[in-house]
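Box 3.1 A note on notation
Throughout this textbook, protein chains are presented in two layers. The first layer is the amino acid sequence; the second is a token string describing backbone geometry. Keep the layers aligned when reading.
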Amino acid sequence: MFDLRVEEYSTIKHSNAFVDILLRRSERLPWEPPTMGYTTVDCESRPVAFGFLRECEGNYAIFDGLLTDPDFKSEVRDHALELVVKELIKAAKLKNIKNIIGFTSDKHTLMRSINHGFLCIDQQLIALSLEANINE
């Protein structure tokens, strides 16, 4: 189908491509990438997709970023994300993480999550931006 493989995320090997894709997608740079991450690369070792889990207390992890390179066709990006998500779930199980949570407004991410066994929980996300109040 697609000639892709999953690699464990390495700051040394992957961070330049990660930052480049974030900037091309007009995303803000994270304070620091989570320690548990994977990337899917093509046959030329070009990163196609990235995914990260941030470990929390209580044996929880939070999906903290799924990102794809917009230069690849949507079918390739979708398959690459599938591989990354499967690897993240496998890694979380090996670390005895009991629950993974996440939030999204993207319908494709929601459908992918449901296909992996996630449940939609009727909750409201609340957020407070402290950047706007930085001088208060």
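The two ends are 54 Å apart (CA to CA). The chain has a mean pLDDT of 88.
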